[in-house]
Amino acid sequence: MDKGIAMLLGLQSWILYRVHVQPDRIDVYTGRPRKEARCPACGSVNRSVYDRCRQWQQKLHTWCNGLPVFLWVRPRRFRCRDCRKVFTERLPGLRPWARRTERAEAQLLEELARRSFRGAAEATGTSPNTLRRLLLRRVKDGVGLERALQDLPEVVLGIDEHSFRGRDMMITVTCVAPKRRLLALLPHDRVRLLEQFLRKLPASVRGKIRAVCIDLKEGWRRAVERALPGVPVVADPFHVIQDANRRVDEARRVEQEVTGQRIPRWPLVKNEENLTDQQAAQLAAIRKRHKNVAHFHWVKEQLRDVYRASSREEAAAILDRLILNAQEAEDAALVQWGRTLRRWRTAILAFHEHQASNGYTEGVHTKIKLIKRLSYGFRNREAYVRKMLLAFLPLAGLTARPHFLT
């Protein structure tokens, strides 16, 4: 019976004196069978027991059928035969002066990964402040990049931003290929911080990076080029088409204000092959009456053809044609768009070589938003970073030096 209880509670190497089951808790009185201990000062092994703690000490260990299980221990004190110092034995799975075992802390963090601080505290019978202190102590702001990427010969990094609070943004760094993993969260979106992070990457990680996928931010591209010379930059297809839809919609609103005629939005921003018959008729009317808006729409559809091209050469021919057409237009906004596409030409065409996008990074942001809603928001930036990493990464991987930069 004792063996079954010990196996259930993970105490196979302990001696169970007695188990006391109460309506609201389970008390397990335990001891250690070994008669020796290692001196923390000189490292020698000693068998000379000097004394034993007079009172039993209570340690939260686990939960069984919803009831907390507490260990009651009486650590022994030894006198070192070499340095003659008196020390208390170290019990496995217990830090000195800790009130909880490592097993209990791991279960608390697993519960916290799925709930808010208050929800996890109510489910485990602890307090939100206790869980917050545990999170800040156990989760080291990130996973070691060398360990996270050690099984991958090459990687493609994805860099994007998400909202911490309102317009206060933070940078998300992921591995988008060949395997998808969250790597780090940077506490703000300054270009200097991103460049600092990339420069501090270990040499073994820098050698594996074959591309970096970003959105259309000139500062980020320059930071990547300075920190990772020779690594190609890939313009994220989603953000390129999103920027195109934004420009088309802006041209529609300007034309609508000038002419005083209502111009429907959806036929312009929706993929042309997915239009209904009514929307197709509306698009044909727009092309007939509003030539400038139709020109913007044509550039947007040509950009989609760039990504649907079967080869880089075909994509380059389509992109060069639309850039030349846009730069020769009469509309100043269209000319400016053509200049932007010319600056990002190499990054746009790099998609056909690396087939990289930030789709996984956007999925990470969706899960982050869900966790923020469950937690009713965050005010502490450091706790926010560690809580998000806890939700994505296994606890065993959150023990390396952090990537939270201040």
UniProtKB/TrEMBL annotation:
InterPro entries: Transpos_ISL3 (IPR047951), Transposase_DDE (IPR002560), Transposase_HTH (IPR032877), Znf_FYVE_PHD (IPR011011). It holds the Pfam family HTH_Tnp_ISL3. It comes from the Bacteria. Residues 157-386 form the Transposase IS204/IS1001/IS1096/IS1165 DDE domain. Residues 89-139 form the Transposase IS204/IS1001/IS1096/IS1165 helix-turn-helix domain. This is Transposase IS204/IS1001/IS1096/IS1165 family protein. It comes from Thermaerobacter marianensis (strain ATCC 700841 / DSM 12885 / JCM 10246 / 7p75a).
